[in-house]
Amino acid sequence: MSDNLKHTPLHEEHLRLDAKIVPFAGWAMPVQYPSGIRAEHEAVRGAAGLFDVSHMGEFHIEGPEALALLRTVCANDAAALEVGQAQYSALLTDEGALIDDLLVYRTGDEAWLLVVNASNLEVDRTWILSHAEGLELTFDDRSDETALLAIQGPASSGIVARLTEVDLDSIGFYRFARGEVAGVPCLIARTGYTGEDGFELYHDAGDAPGLWRALLEAGAPDGLIPAGLGARDTLRLEVGYPLYGNDLDREHSALESGLGWVVKLDREPFIGRDALLRQKEEGVTRRLVGIRLEGKGFPRSGYPVVVGDEEVGVVTSGTMSPSLGEGIALAYLPLEHAEPGTRVAVRIRGRDLEGTVVRPPFYRDGSLRR
């Protein structure tokens, strides 16, 4: 493995637990632990799993014109947020395509936290700063000094409650509070990437090993286990959450990518708005859809999607769903093949496995509070 890969503050913890480490977005990350991806997936669905997601980027923006900047560069409307609330958003090109998807937290009247994908951190920072010139604000990239743990699953609230005096029941979905967890000052956010109830804990990098161990110890009686990128991917795909670099990219617009609900076109201009208004008027010609296969088959990224002998698209993300026991996939398909109920097939090693276009999520029985 390359010596140039970055390590999260929990790297030694992962090695101690015999995790399999792989390169991911320039980082050495645990893809699975000895328990295996399926066991980690099932732990999150049935009890709880603990993820190290400290590779994510954190930008803090503050000042009288911070909101003006966010309303320019983000497709969602940050003005709708109260202090203590978060939203899913996107950075768009002038053509309305995805530079990145991100979370926006309002941490004060004029203060904001942006959480971006590790693979796009430098691009995002440069893009945002290029539109901040002359504005009265400060921009602070705290990615290196910030660690992020995600505890996800139906037992997660009870586990965290043992380690904090914060009233977790008062933190609604996509809301957050500040307080100590196991003596560590944290921003405690009811957010996640699994379709299950849970929290993402932002804290100083130096505190990460102690918090990691405290959570695993407190949650052991409930079945909490560490989980890696492999389970994170199968969990997010079951609930239809897109992944940048697979399902989201600069080749597809926000409307084609199924992010129309994020894009607030009925407000003052933001980057990409004019292009999306034109596309909405003219109509998209392709759309990101779900495909549920009949029977067992692993529809990997890059596999062709076919109708008869015609290749009509390719799988952007795919897996054998541990919860459903069937192959599931996301793919961009032409509009004439994108309607739910349409019959298609995925070509897996020369064999066409039949399936049906569906509207994600594939899995709907999670504990996520909506």
Helices and strands in order:
Elements: E1 6-7, H1 11-16, E2 20-24, E3 27-32, H2 37-46, E4 49-52, E5 57-62, H3 66-73, E6 86-92, E7 98-108, E8 111-116, H4 121-130, E9 138-141, E10 146-152, H5 156-161, E11 176-181, E12 184-189, E13 198-204, H6 208-219, E14 225-227, H7 229-238, H8 273-282, E15 286-293, E16 304-307, E17 310-320, E18 327-334, E19 343-348, E20 351-358
Parallel strand pairs: 1-3, 4-14
Antiparallel strand pairs: 2-3, 4-10, 5-8, 5-9, 6-7, 7-8, 10-13, 11-12, 12-13, 15-18, 15-20, 16-17, 16-19, 17-18, 19-20
Structure characteristics:
Elongation Factor Tu (Ef-tu), domain 3; 8 helices; about 375 residues; about 35% strand; 3 domains; alpha+beta; Alpha-Beta Plaits; single chain
Separation of termini? Answer: 41 Å
Major sheet details: 6 strands, mixed
What CATH architecture of the largest domain do you see?
2-Layer Sandwich
Count the beta strands: 20
Helix content: 10-25%
Task: Tell me about this structure.
The structure is a single chain. The chain contains eight helices and 20 strands. The protein has 370 residues and is an alpha+beta fold. The chain folds into three domains: 145 residues, Gyrase A, domain 2; 68 residues, Alpha-Beta Plaits; 74 residues, Beta Barrel (Elongation Factor Tu (Ef-tu), domain 3), CATH 2.40.30. The protein has a six-stranded mixed β-sheet. It is globular and about 60 Å long. It starts with 5 loop residues before the first strand and ends in a 12-residue tail after the last strand.
